[in-house]
Protein 1
Amino acid sequence: MIIDQILDTPIEFLKGVGPQKGKLLRSELAIETYGDLLQHFPHRYIDNKAVLNISDLNPSMDYVQLKGIIMHVREEGNGFKKRLVADLHDASGSLELVWFQGGKWVQKQLEPNKAYTIFGKISYFNSKPTITHPDISLVVEQNGFVAPLIPLYPSTEKLKAKGLNNKNFGKLTQALFEKLKETDIKETLHPNIRQQFKLSGAYYAYKNIHFPTDNNSIQHALRRLKWEELFYTQLKIAKLKVKNAQQQSFHFHNVGAYFNTFYKDHMPFELTNAQKRVIKEIREDTKSGKQLNRLVQGDVGSGKTMVAFLSMLIAVDNGFQTCMMAPTEILAQQHYAGIQALAQTIGIKVAVLTGSVKVKEKRQILSALLDGTIQIIIGTHALIEDTVVFKNLGLAVIDEQHRFGVGQRAKLWKKNVLPPHVLVMTATPIPRTLAMTAYGELDTSVIDELPPGRKPIQTIHRNESFRPQVMQFIKAEIAKGRQIYIVYPLIEESEKLAYESLMAGFEQVKMWFPTDKYNIAMVHGKQAPDEKERNMQRFISGHAHIMVATTVIEVGVNVPNASVMVIESAEKFGLSQLHQLRGRVGRGSEKSYCILLTSNEISKEARQRVAIMVKTNDGFLIAEEDLRLRGPGDIYGTKQSGALQFKIADIVQDVDIIEETKMAAQNILEHDPLLTQPEHISLRYAIEKKSIQAHTPWNKIS
Ligand code: ADP
Ligand code: MG
């Protein structure tokens, strides 16, 4: 094997690794080479001097460093719960150390009556502190240099079992740096950029992120490395945007009879100014001959569907077919019902295609798509299958909660001789930094206005002890002629559990609201479509007073007379879901309420979510808070897409750097859109190389 750069050396050749650990490093952390290890960054540091007294520990602390003598090593429990336990004593007191795995090995290592440094996360059992699986090392008399800050690295259970715990990982990076010369780490940022943005050199940054001399050096290293990572991301996005902007697509020459007739004679309401503005933006794009690549953001209930529908009409007016793709079957069906009702007023043929469509019907749909009889098709991912062939697809609308994968997008683009126009609508607003990164290659339109006459919804938090009062309140609202939603959480891990909790809830509702006096409808995921439909209709028609449901009603349902949304076990919902659910009420002329029912004891995070919901109705603000509380990983399935998997940057904390790098990337591309100038060749090489890099499997990290 010829390795022309030392950083490309396979990881098992490093001192202290070998074939066994090498294999694990690859499979667990995608660390294949010296270079990958170099980019496996510490996630925190401990101050070598910061040794606490056991008596000073308290429940608000997490990772701590202690020094003491380990005594009374013994096995406790049996079978499943067998564990090794030892007491750590210092001058101030003692605590228990616990190992559930690898106890034998630890026992062999421990030397009696010697002082140890202990590092780990404290937890409390019966108000006594313990540390499970601590890092332990003999206190050695140090003479000369002592590293002031010890790096801790992300590791996994399997690696820890092989001795590579958060702390020991540093031995590998140490071995690595013993092999590296300063020139082995290539500088990838142009001196001009480094000077302009005050960024340290590459070698300094890597050296100091792994072996900092002080806090200041960590900050410099962090800034440089985050900057570099975000810069390449933004450059890639900006380059894609340049490419998109040049992409040819179909000319929609005129706004024709379908649009005009519908607009004049069948519009159920006057468009808001925001809706008009966004439609104009879409119109401008579609008549330019270039491809429309636009993200439409708007709060729940801002009227994105009508914007999509009117855009579709322009496509149909110009002889093209259009499709609308939704993330779930239920959502696709709801869009179908809504759009079908609008389209039939002007004689446009609409169909729906999902995974559950029967073979025979599917065959008919496919042939009607091919011969052009179907003008609008609504569906799920079933729409991008290879068997779906259009006569002339001109516009694809994507109503999404999850970011589309690159491969899926490519399939959509291939559905016609030129790629169709693409309109992406988000279900809920997305925070700005997220939009800039995950959707940065798209143009953006924002519907920043709700249809007139919407009354702000009052949101109230009540815990279980107040259930009787809440039920009393609902009775009073029903007596006034209003309708009520009661929603139960979807338990993702277990459909069965979700179903059981819904059924238990349904029984409870019937106890409060006897069925001889109250009419109760119920909708959930296990029902057959016609049963679901029947129940929906009972509620929509005003016949049913109460709709008991799982989150299937989260999207799209429109019953203006419903004025109360009760969310059961609200602590189990995420912020954007709560906001979506709340958006089901407040659509009529009456004052509306959203009641968040929680158990009496809820976690700190749940309490924060609830407080935000009570405080504001603003979906954009809620999206920002959601990102702050949860991090980007969970939002909109972005984790799967990889769009936001950063090694060191943080989309929440690094807003300033995101802005800077975006600007820097745009600047460069403005002067050299294809990155062909000599000083940009390395940039081009870097972003092409970066796109094929393996991603860190965050789910295994502990
Ligand atoms: P979302 O943006 O959440 O997808 P929808 O498109 O479902 O919102 O619209 C929410 C409700 O508001 C629908 O019942 C729709 O008919 C209604 N609507 C949309 N635009 C207007 C408007 N300009 N005036 C009045 N009602 C509107
Ligand atoms: Mg919608």
Note: The first strand starts at residue 44 and ends at 47.
Protein 2
Amino acid sequence: MQDEVQLTSQDFDLGRVWNNRFANLGPAFFSARTPTPVREPYWVARSQSMARELGLEDDWWRSQEALEAFSGNRPLVGSRPLASVYSGHQFGVWAGQLGDGRAIMLGEVQASDGNSLELQLKGSGSTPYSRMGDGRAVLRSTIREFLCSEAMHALGIPSTRALCMTGSDQPVRRETLETAAVLARTAPSFIRFGHFEHFSHTEQHEELKKLTDFVIDGFYPECRDAPNPAAALLAAVTSRTAALMAGWQAVGFCHGVMNTDNMSILGLTLDYGPFQFMDGFDPNHIPNHTDTGGRYSYKRQPQVAYWNLFALGQALLPLIGEPDETMAALEPYKAIFPAAQDMRMAAKLGFTNSNEGTSALINDLLALMAKERTDYPIFWRRWAQHLAGQPVETVLDLFHDRPGIENCMQQLQELESKFGQQPNANLALGSSPAIVLRNHLAEQAIALANQKDFSMIQQLLDVLENPFSEHPNHTTWAGFPPDWASSIQISCSS
Ligand code: AMP
Ligand code: MG
């Protein structure tokens, strides 16, 4: 059915310089593959902030040609479309070869700052790595990825980005019949831990070295002159991943599918599937309905990241040489993650440094919140607003256990006297967002989109781009989730 639609022969010119460095790695790394056109595409949403970073003209999206290009129906001048091959561990089990089964990398576009950004179309048709899949993505999951990529970036948490998404009424079969969408997403690189695992497990050690050199030269040049560059790379990735985990935990983000093929070598949040920003605080929260064992629950994310780094270390072992050096490169995780986490949480309290006092207060607050399933984003925002002068009752009223929260407030005062300074309200307000992309907000935008009303997606994007500001016109979006939010089930199906 998809093949009925003809690829438009005349190319679309984005007006940017393309550097297709990944494509120069050679055929072991990818299969050349052009997107499969969709029927009668239409615009769903665009990120002007991403467009500006790419250096696109303000009216970049206005033409029919642009619409066709970003839905995969028209080639882009200078692009060199391909699907890359990778492997990975899924739910802790070696899954063998995976690869870009429904994403096609168009190439690397030179952004306005001179750096290159890879541009991918996700949901743009099957590739040699599609296995049993149809190569498509549905409207529902594409809206979630589009919004969350931009929201994470605005939260200051490293992430792949989204430029735009288009839809088509072409049917896509999941549990029910849905419709297709194509996401144009960007990142300096979409290389995953799984790319390294692929060349290691298949004993293609020359390619493994080539990939490692490519990543070091392009993204970790400081590792080049280290005595053991591959070990230095592992240590650098370990450090970035630890920082990423601290960012996720502090904001209450659950990824949902932390398989090694969804782990970015650049420490970016990658592949938004059954993710969730927690509502009521529950350390054991599992966002993914399919994850019955809770392997990827909120509290396990930092450990899982370490497990994944270990898998990366094993993959790099043929280059590193010594198991001891591999372990030494991973070891700093155990100090970097907790330190980064303590800093993030201390900042939410309003302090620039963490110490025994801030750690004890955080532990007590989180224990209290876990006991009462206190709304995580609202608690922290109200805490910050209290520091900025709002009455303390706005915080106290969130708890049944009044003595418990009053005891925490007492601890805050003791910290103030110990530090000899007031907590910094602006630091706290800049660390605890007023709005995050909760599941029910995405669901509302999706329900409207299913009726061809895409306005809420764009309005949500506007608000999520400034998550640390109050949005008086959208107070309900910043408020408590409705009762039905807890019954939303998000699975791997996308
Ligand atoms: P994910 O669970 O989304 O990280 O995907 C795991 C693997 O399955 C990757 O190789 C994806 O490209 C592939 N995949 C997921 N959905 C599809 C689909 N609808 N068609 C083809 N490949 C898919
Ligand atoms: Mg994936």
Note: The pocket of adenosine monophosphate (ligand 1) is lined by residues 98-102, 129-130, 133-136, 257, 261-262, 271, 273, 492 (CB under 6 Å).
Protein 3
Amino acid sequence: MKIVIATNNQNKLREAREIFSPLGIEILSQKDVSVSVNPEENGITFAENALIKARAVYELIHLPVIADDSGLCVDALDGAPGVYSARYAPEHLLCETLLENMKDVPTEQRTAKFVTAVAFIDENGREITLEGNCPGIIGFEKRGTNGFGYDPVFMYGEKSFAELEPEQKNAVSHRGQAFRKLYDYLKNHYQQEEN
Ligand code: IMP
């Protein structure tokens, strides 16, 4: 089975391939299907934004499409940056900005979670959204060089997400969970259609 992923983010494309290819699903990029869209993400929930991205691609190609919208919700910041995670600061300053805004927050109040909503639209235009989340702690400094975005300051146990190998991160991450829920849904969805 082939599914197009509605993203221009190479890291998300890589993570989606790492998660779905062992499951026998081929993930095509927007480039693979000659589509270039970058819709305004003006939803107020992760699920709304994921649907906006998936619809923008589906309307052009009418093939199965997935899109995800993710972000970091920090308790001490009342859930910020949340759906505004990408716009919190320039990409290379996301971690520094977060650390600066939390410099006076003690360890026990540094709880946070990564959230992913994934939207799927099938070839007939039927839509669903599913969510995954991963709790952690915001560290006091950047650690590790893997991953992207806020990974170096997101502590999962003793290690930051940026210190984990890709498959270790995928096994526990918000995106890994949401994508695996989607895989379970797809298995049922297409098995039922076959019967
Ligand atoms: P979006 O889902 O492309 O809108 O991404 C939202 C923001 O959250 C981006 O700035 C990413 O850097 C950040 N983000 C999303 N997923 C992750 C992750 O797995 N690790 C670190 N940062 C992430």
Note: The two ends are 17 Å apart (CA to CA).
